[in-house]
């Protein structure tokens, strides 16, 4: 058994990625502080062909050396935009017909892996600040909440880890439809 070579992986070029069909999923980062977390979300979004990343509030934007360190160039392939206000960003997504979900432990949240997420429309997933989570004013606008079931003592994950889990689950659910 041996690892695949780069050629055997048939990796897309940035141009091929940009021209390829994307997952109808937008990732919204609500005031994410860590540049490494932002870069990691870019890298995961590239892996699963996420359509767009909306960077909101204090969330830093490329080009930035620290983002690039974990994104490894994915900030060049994945479409992104900056929005000063997360509320306005979510309102715009909803006006464009998106179902918007916040990743938070909340009353009546959908449990990933157990509950199906409505995928008859494009989906936007909001990930919050590393300390405070998703802003309450943003949560009030969401169509629902997604929860990653956890059995430990902390009931929280690093935002980039949570994003990887949720994006993978959305990839599985949305891929069937596309």
Helix fraction bin? 25-40%
N-C termini distance: 33 Å
Shape: globular
Number of helices: 8
Strands side by side in the biggest sheet? 3-2-1-6-4-7-5
What ranges have pLDDT less than 50 throughout 5 or more consecutive residues?
none
| Element order: H for helix, E for strand | HHEHEHHEHEEEHEH
Question: Outline of this structure?
Answer:
The protein has 178 residues and is α/β, with parallel strands linked by helices. The protein has helices spanning 6-9, 14-19, 35-47, 65-71, 74-77, 86-95, 136-139, 159-177, and strands at residues 23-30, 50-56, 80-83, 99-103, 110-111, 123-127, 144-147.
Can you put this structure into words, describing what you see?
With 178 residues, the chain is of the alpha/beta class. Helix content is 38%, strand content 20%. The chain contains eight helices and seven strands. It has helices spanning 6-9, 14-19, 35-47, 65-71, 74-77, 86-95, 136-139, 159-177; strands spanning 23-30, 50-56, 80-83, 99-103, 110-111, 123-127, 144-147. It has a seven-stranded parallel sheet, sandwiched between helices. Helix 3 (35-47) packs parallel to helix 8. The N and C termini lie far apart (33 Å).
List keywords for this structure.
single chain; 178 residues; alpha/beta; 7-stranded parallel beta sheet; 8 helices; globular
Itemize the secondary structure elements and their pairings.
Blueprint: H1 6-9, H2 14-19, E1 23-30, H3 35-47, E2 50-56, H4 65-71, H5 74-77, E3 80-83, H6 86-95, E4 99-103, E5 110-111, E6 123-127, H7 136-139, E7 144-147, H8 159-177
Parallel strand pairs: 1-2, 1-6, 2-3, 4-6, 4-7, 5-7
Helix pairs in contact: 3-4, 3-8
């Amino acid at each position: 058994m041996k690892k695949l070579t780069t050629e055997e992986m048939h990796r897309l070029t940035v141009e091929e990625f940009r021209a390829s069909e994307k997952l109808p999923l937008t990732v919204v980062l609500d005031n994410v502080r860590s540049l490494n977390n932002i870069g990691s979300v870019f890298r995961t979004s590239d892996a699963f062909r996420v359509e767009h990343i909306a960077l909101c509030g204090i969330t830093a934007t490329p080009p930035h050396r620290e983002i690039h360190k974990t994104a490894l160039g994915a900030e060049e392939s994945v479409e992104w935009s900056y929005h000063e206000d997360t509320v306005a960003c979510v309102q715009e997504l909803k006006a464009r017909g998106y179902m918007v979900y916040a990743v938070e432990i909340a009353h009546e949240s959908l449990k990933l892996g157990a509950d199906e997420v409505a995928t008859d429309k494009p989906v936007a997933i909001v990930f919050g600040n590393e300390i405070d989570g998703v802003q309450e004013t943003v949560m009030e606008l969401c169509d629902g909440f997604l929860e990653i079931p956890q059995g430990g003592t902390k009931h929280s994950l690093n935002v980039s880890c949570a994003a990887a889990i949720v994006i993978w689950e959305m990839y599985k659910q949305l891929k069937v439809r596309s």
